[in-house]
Every structure is written in C-alpha cells, then in structure tokens.
C-alpha cells in the first residue's frame, strides 16, 4: 500500500490506503498525527485526497467535548477541498480527478426538501452529529485495527477521507484551494445567512453579535447585499480594525456599555432597531439581546451560533405577539450545498466575494495543533492546513 | 343636554357634552351596569361617533375579569363596532359628520416610519397599548356623579356615543351592513389578516390552527381565501368541528383525545412532516411551542396571535431554532394597516369572496349586553352583535 499515492496510476482504487491522519484520541488533548487505514469507498461514496483543510470552531468544540454526541477516537475537520482518488459503485456524478468540497450538510437531490427552493434540510440524509458515514459504518481504522470515528460526514484532518456523494460539491479548479476550502462551512454559512436566509436588502441596517469568522462572513454577505450600516458587537475591541475590511461600519464593545444594555445602544444608533440582527456566538442571552435590538414591525433575528445542547431561548409572549418581529435560524446559511456553493465560487471568481481576508494563517499538516492554539487564543480567523507542505 | 337619539341633523349636539346610555364595567368580574353617562365633545383630532352596533370579543371579557394592575374600573369596554360621526374636533379634515366609520384599536397616523412602510402596521406615533385614556392621556367620559370613566383600547364601544382619535378611525365607503362591518374592527380582520398578510399563506399549502374560537375560525376563513389545500383545526372541544367546517377547516384534532401522543406528533403524521403554517389562536405559551413542533422543517412558519398572560414566556431549544429552518413571528391585528387594508377586506366581502355572515351567531339589543358575555363564556357564540337602537 502506498503512503502518498499518485492518483494517475489508479493503483489504489478499490484498495485500502494507508496515510497520515491527525486523530483526536482524547477530549481536550492535542491531535495525534499517526498512520491510519482508509477503506475504499462503498456504494454512493467517493474517496477524496485532501489538498487543504481549515479549522472551524466546531472542530474545537467537539475536541473538547467529553460527553456524547462527541466520540473518540475521531478524525475531526469539516472544511476542506480535495481531489477524487476513486469512486464507489453507482457513482455517476463525480469521476476520479474532480476537485471537490466535502460538506457536512447533505443534498440527495431527490427528497421533498432538496426539490423545494425553500429548504436546504435534506430529509434523506438529515443533518446529525454522527460518528459514522451515512450507512452507519466507518471507513477508518488505526494500525491496531480499531475503528476511528467520522465527524460531520466529512473528516478532513487526514490525507484521504471517504464521503457520500450527497455531501460533495464539485469545484471549478480555477479557485485556489486555500480559498475553496473556506466554503465548506464558515464563510458559506455567514454569507448565506445574509444573502439567502435573511435576504438582506440594499440600504438596510444590520447588527452582528460576535465578530469571529461567522460574524465577519455575515458582514461580507451583508456588504455584498448592499447593507448601508453594519454594526459589529463583540467583547474584544481589537476586532474592530479587522472587521472594517469585512464591511462592518460601526462597533459596539459589549463590555463598555455601562448601565445600558447592548440592545439599548443599538436601538439608539439605529433609531429604533436594526432591520436584521445576527447572533453568531452561540449564547441564548445574546439571541435574546439581538431580538431586543431588531426593529419593531419588520426586524428579523437570525440565529447562527451553535449553543450547548439543552440550551433554551426565552422570549416574552407579549413581545413576540406585539412587536412584529421574526425569529429564524440559519443552517449552513440556508444554502443548498451543491447549487449555492457554486454560486459563491462564481462570485469569488468575479471578484465580488472576497475570501483572501479570511485566511490569516497557513501551516503544514504536522503543525495542525498550532491551528487550534491560534484559534483558541483568538489570534486567527481561518488557518489553512496544507496536506502537502 | 339631549339624551340618545338626539337630532343630529339640527347640529344641536356639536361642541356640547352628550348624555346617553353606556354599559359600564364597575367591578371586576361583575355584569356591566347600564347607566347614563356624559360624553364630552371631541378634542383636537378626535371625532365623536354614534355607535350603530358593536360585537363582543374575548379581550373585552378578559379585561372585565382582570383584577391585577393592568385592569382599571370603572371602564367602558368594547372595541369592535361601527358608527356614524356625530361631530368632529379641531384639525379634523379626514372625516365629516355623517360619515360611517369603524373605530379600530390599532392606530395609523400615516406619518411615522412604520405607517409609511409597507412592512409594518405598528404605528410609532400612537403605539398599541391597552390604555385607560385617549391618546392625550385624558378621558371624555364621566358618570352622573362626575366621576371619570376609563376608555378601553382607544375605542370604548359599549356606549351610545364614544370619542375616538382620527388615527383610530377608518371610513366605510361601501354599503356593508353594520352587523358585518363591526366584525372588522378586531377579530375577523385579525384572523383573516394573519393568514393573508402576516403569514402570506400560499395556495395549495397546509395550515394548522390551534384554537377554534372566532380568531381561529377567521384564520381558517383567511387561509381558505388564500387557497390552502388542508386546514387542520385543533381544539379541546370536539363540538366545534361541525361549525368549523363552514369556515374551511378540513381536518380536526381533538387535543384531549390524543392518548399518549402529543398534538404535534399527530399533526406531523397527518402532514408528512409538519404544516406549512401553524397559527396559535388560544393564547397559551405551551401551545405556541406545540405549534412550533409541528410546523414543517425547512420552511414552516409559526404565527402567534393569541395573547397569554403578561409575564408568560415562550421557550424554544436553541439548537432546534438554529437547525430546523422554521420561522417564528407574531401578528397584531393580522398585520393589517387599519385605514389602507380594511377597505380591501370589505371589498372582498362585497364581492362575495370573504364570508362574514357565519361569524354572527347571535344578536341582542344594548340593554341585554350582559347576555352576550354569558353566551361567549358558555362557548355558545362566535360573535354576538349588540344593537344600540333595537
């Protein structure tokens, strides 16, 4: 079995591949670079050689989670781009050599949701935090033969992964890989939330709670939609300078509002509330603050941040009834993984959507744990991890 | 001072107080007291209206019974009505004596940002509140001892003459019968509007309605007009289904007959995954949460219309809100603009599309107004119209 195989020789097709992976063996501990065995793709699956992958906070969350739905040992990572090394039975949509982005959100193309313009929540392969591929089994084993779990149907912290075709989007190879991988989660989620879920109108006012990558992607999406005022709210005032480049026009330091609530400040700044308020941190009280900051009559509050399981949002019945506001969640930005990501790629290639500014660091695969340190330390937006550096 | 049936054509009452009959709520939970009251002339931007007829809405009942600080007595309740302008105050150009009008608890000043926006019906100049006063913070009513009587919802229609701010008045240009017109100042407009305007119910869609009182039935009527294919009614009283069929309800769920299953489970089964629109029309927080649980993932809308107690909270799972693709919204007065949208609703009635007759199940005269309360509390009526001149 070859380590880093040449795809053109087709010598690995149908056989297990032995390659490097960064395995999460224990909650809260650094990933371990080790060799693993990646089984060939089964029916409806493809095996992908990862070119590069980027770190998203959800990977950090699940590395640190001691309880289910976290499971160990696992191969984390879910934002990536790669090239197809081989395809399983029944696969006609993709061929060996295609450049692809694996995506945690499925699109079977056949179910009522996939056929509807209004939904991106595939019913055939619903989203869930699963340790398996869609058929309930794993393609990964370690050298002792022990099963290694998948993550979000993607598992990109490995030189080779196996993904179901429903979780795969073809990519125009003209887009640089260290821009393409961003579209597997964070940037698509944020841009989509503004564009598709909220349908931000030109000239409107937007408030964004949390200026991490998601919040900045929402700002970028709002900028593309022509929002006139984009207010960024964060506990860290150092983020404002960076945020300006993403379209944020005003900043609220949520730790310096004195006696006033953040929503009061925003209501004053916007003459009654923002047209769209996005929560991009994952805290129930911030969703409630965002709701309070949205404009009566038409304001939309959009929930993007992933909170702890069991967390609840509470609203006054009276406010929901009488203020004319709307509350909605946005999963993967409301985007259909196959069709809409193509649109984002095009907008990038047409130099409208800016992706370069999201990548603040790049490391080689063996330094993957540095990516975690940078993100947890608040020093990076997106750190790209190259497999072949 | 003249009593009721003053000769308005002689203009003798303009500018003067009017002495007339009112059904006064004097004590929480007790029947209204028919007595004579003094109605002051309209002030700046107000009109005085002779009520033709008025209908009873559950909110009147709620505030008759309320003991806590929100309630106040003595008060003239009633907020669904139609009448004729008897005189206008200074600065009024929109209305003239003799105009047939509907007073509405929702204001429309037409100048503020909300009134100018197509997206909002929540006037900022005169925001919605259950106030004991008119907009200037004073009352036009006193009893014969000179004691102030409180207003209700800026309307106060259980009286032969009332005073209302022009922002709360809509002119009626068409010959709609009074005992149909009065329904449009609250309940029917709220329900029909919620389906049409707030939810924008699409043709062929599936709707679930929690609570089959007048509001729920009005939502059904609105959904029917929008061409909904399946309209599921949920109530704890199975006797309501027969009547509900006349309003477009196609399926019924008895919320007390579900056994081990939750209502939302039953509805998810009936609709292969959830209704496109779920309306809560009973005013119970737990029902809003149930409605949310059975609206269709991906695109389902949950619309809150019923009003729960002041402190009640709606609770949702953060992760579900994030990942289920559902929308939650409230609807006040059906999202309708009182002055602009009511004429559209009236036109649909006059064109025989919107059916209003079926909402009126009883009619009484003013002195029997307390019977209207009994009928509603006993669950025997949908809308009971109270005629001033019967």
UniProtKB/TrEMBL annotation, chain A:
This is Alcohol dehydrogenase. Belongs to the zinc-containing alcohol dehydrogenase family. Residues 214-346 form the Alcohol dehydrogenase-like C-terminal domain. It comes from the Eukaryota. Keywords: Metal-binding, Oxidoreductase, Zinc. SUPFAM superfamilies: GroES-like, NAD(P)-binding Rossmann-fold domains. InterPro entries: ADH-like_C (IPR013149), ADH-like_N (IPR013154), ADH_Zn_CS (IPR002328), GroES-like_sf (IPR011032), NAD(P)-bd_dom_sf (IPR036291). The keyword Transmembrane does not apply. It comes from Penstemon davidsonii.
Automatic annotation (TrEMBL), chain B:
The keyword Oxidoreductase applies. Residues 45-172 form the Alcohol dehydrogenase-like N-terminal domain. Pfam families: ADH_N, ADH_zinc_N. Residues 215-342 form the Alcohol dehydrogenase-like C-terminal domain. Its cofactor is Zn(2+). Belongs to the zinc-containing alcohol dehydrogenase family. This is Alcohol dehydrogenase. It comes from Penstemon davidsonii.
